[in-house]
Predict the 3D structure of the following.
Amino acid sequence: MKCTECQMENIDGALFCEECGAKLETAGEMFDSEVEAGGGSQLVLKANDGNRLELPSKDDVVIGREDPISEVFPDLDLTDLGGADGGVSRKHAVIHRAGTSLTIEDMGSTNGTYINKKRIQPNVPQTIKPGDEVRFGKLSFSLQAA
Amino acid sequence: MKEELKIRCVMSKDSLPITGGEQALYALVDIKTGGGASFGSMPANLGLVLDRSGSMDGEKMDNLKEAAGYVADHLSDKDLVSVTIFDDQVESLIPNQPAKNREDIKSKLARVIPRGGTQISDGLRTGMAEVKKGYSKDRVNRVLLLTDGQTWDDEDACLKLADEAGKQGIAITSIGIGEEWNEKLLLQIAERSHGDSHWIQNPISILDVFRQEVEGMQSVAAVNLRVTARLSQGVKPVKVYSTIPMITDVSKKAVSGQSVVADLGSLDGKKGQAVLIEARVPSQKAGKFRLGMVEVTYDVPSQGIKGKSIKADLFVNFTPDAAAAAKVNAEVMNLAEKVSAFKLQTRALSEAEAGNIAAATQKLQAAATVLLNMGEDELAKAAEREILSLKKTGVLSPAGTKKLEYGTRKLTQALTEAIK
């Protein structure tokens, strides 16, 4: 299998290019073999260690770190999951729901929001779907239907 | 009966496509404490081996004395402690003894005055001899080596001592302060003895690192941890990495023919251990294929447990279903990405050391891209700064080299701490 970044031939099944470290094409979308994404309306963010955060059923769900001093109370607080060390901003990102469509918008966070390893532009909503990997700073989750 | 440890094996893919050729497959062996684990049941036998060379004068020595005092205060009366100080001469300041004479230890430390050069092997030899006096299989036997300087032409002697320590079950945690010490040597001392290594930029952090070490010794859940993998006919192990407390390539010692035997020292019950095995799998017909067996063995001396073993069989499906074969396990992917970043950094640094500027620059550029994609912005910037340094001066900066060496090795540590 050829690396699309540096054209180096890698063995089938290799996850990262031996030459340049790029993610290889067959790695494709991140899947978690334990839980499959389904079609339900409830959504969860699942951390790699199995921690699950249920998305509240509201149109705009703000994700960040609670800070009572500056009166920031996000809908999903990542403090207990190591948000501070993981570089999560107090107001990091917001997930918008409109019917069945979902978008995520970075709220100008310091360390960025990533969808499937690609950093998204601040303040520009991007479509997401169950099965996507979403990362806030260093904390990464897989978006799944509950 | 509840087991002290539990293991979990996860493959990079549950299903492989039928390609007719060999394929790469990764197995993550995750080791954690089980319901029967008991923490802190093993008393410590700790030897501090501390650099008192002239360059330690001032803030470094003041902070070191405070941190060593913290160790004395936080060991229990059942623990053993010794303090060896070295410059180009060695002094056994506190011979191996129960850690209850705390005030005596602190007052002796207070009288240490920086002087002379740095001869690490002499300090290490004397420090290890003190730890050996109190050595027991029932204790967590450990040396904490701290230095701020390059040693004087005795690197080989240091490495031999580290090998010896590893064989005897004495882990050496090596700590470098500032920028003027040899990170390669300190990392190898740690790796060969199944210890940890730290880079301290600001002397004020010495206390933090010493505190972590004391807590780490008090949470040892098992010792003589060994991961063995016996793979089926045609399945070849290629690379093996242990990832806690830092990413270490153990392939050279561990891989032999179709087997993997990795000795990993003690298990910190709070952090666990995760081993990544990369293998080559021959093509098979559709159906379930047994890859082999993984066995984890360990001792828990306080409970009279020796050579206890937990086994797990590894399987993969060969399937004509392309969609099923394209699914990659996120957890394995995550760990493999960190290992990949570590490998790129290692190769970049060795190219730079060999004077291959173009190759080193290319690898550093690749490392910077990978690190940026992982959200490791600071490390990515460090790699970019080193590209500039290579262009301007033809060599890497001492601080940049340390940042990359330690930063990429500890990518797994950051994850444990961030998700906890």
The radius of gyration of chain B is 23 Å. Residues 31 and 273 of chain B are 5 Å apart (CA to CA). Chain B touches chain A at residues 10, 12-14, 16-17, 19, 21-26, 280-281, 326-334, 336-337, 340-341, 343-344, 366-367, 369-370, 373-377, 414-415, 417-420 (CB under 8 Å). Residues 330-353 of chain B form the longest helix (24 residues).
